[in-house]
Amino acid sequence: MKNVKKIVAIAIIGIITVAFSGCNMIEKTQAGINNTVVASVNGEKITVGEVEARMKGTENQLKQQYGSNYASNSTAADQLKQAKTQMLEEMVTEDLLLQKAKTLKLVPSDSAINAEVKKQYDSLRSQDQYKKDSDWKAALTQNGFTEEALKAQMRNSVIIAKVTDYMTKNVSVTDKQIQDYYNSNQLKYTEQPNTIDIAHILVKTEAEAKDIKAQLDKGADFASLAKQKSTDTTSGAAGGELGTYNQANDDQSKQLDATFMTAALALKVGQISAPVQTQYGWHIIKCVDRKDYPVKKLDDVKAQVKDTLLSQAKQDAYQKTLDKWKKAADIKEEADKLS
């Protein structure tokens, strides 16, 4: 339930809520800009200044990546604009959930909230990188926090956690669902991760792919054809070699097109596929090597499967309820006012 965790998780990620008092300064002054309303949730306003205050961590990351003049870099500027728009959406969601906590009488007692905030704060403060007071204060400053603001955000997270629990309280998983998921996802439950080493030749048209396959069937060298014909010049220069991948294809940092992987997994070592079409073009795929391990028994992984399904079901229930609440709420957003 990654999105739910993202809302309730507390870490030094540059989140701080700053309230700006009203003033008579004109719109063109910085104070006036900060007080510009960019969203409202049932009448509760969110200003430019509040969004900007939450962007400190992101701005520091961009500064490290692009330098102190990152704002003049078009790529960095686009990333910052997208991050601000996303932050505004998250702030709208947070405000709505905090409102719902009051409406549904889900707000814990002050003593309960304070106890949980202390627990979260002490856990964060005790981490090795923050043992020195100077390191702790530097981390707070770098991410736009004060002690008070951090604890205030932790307080909100405690309340929001109660709301998300309410939103997902009726979620359950049946034994049949567990069995079906296990049967359909056995590559995720092998004794060791199954791997496959793949090479390919990528071309633009099916006719080209068929011609290359015909040459291979007659004994042509795969690596030589990859170097000559593949439009994927990086792998082509290596004879078509793409490297070794997890057969479950669940590594987000190294994930292949699903259609491509399905075709690759159908191959034995040394075998070459018929032409396969993906969003990138037409592929001829070769299985260079693969490692296949036994699948664990369901009884050994049942708890793990159940946790996976519960997490998915809770995320679905959360999103369905959130969409319903947002539709019923009076929400206005003007992200175009964010600079």
What do these coordinates show?
Plays a major role in protein secretion by helping the post-translocational extracellular folding of several secreted proteins. This is Foldase protein PrsA. Keywords: Cell membrane, Isomerase, Lipoprotein, Membrane, Palmitate, Rotamase, Signal. Its main location: membrane. One of its GO terms (biological process) is protein folding. There is one protein chain. With 339 residues, the protein is α+β, with helices and mostly antiparallel strands. It has 2 domains: 197 residues, Orthogonal Bundle (Triger factor/SurA peptide-binding fold), CATH 1.10.4030; 100 residues, Chitinase A, domain 3 (Roll), CATH 3.10.50.40. The chain contains 14 helices and 7 strands. The chain has a 4-stranded antiparallel beta sheet with strand order 4-3-6-5. A 3-stranded antiparallel beta sheet has the order 2-1-7. Strand 5 and strand 6 form a beta hairpin. It starts with a helix and ends in a 6-residue tail after the last strand. The N terminus is likely disordered.
Descriptive keywords:
Triger factor/SurA peptide-binding fold; 7 strands; 339 residues; 4-stranded antiparallel sheet; 53% helix; alpha+beta; Chitinase A, domain 3
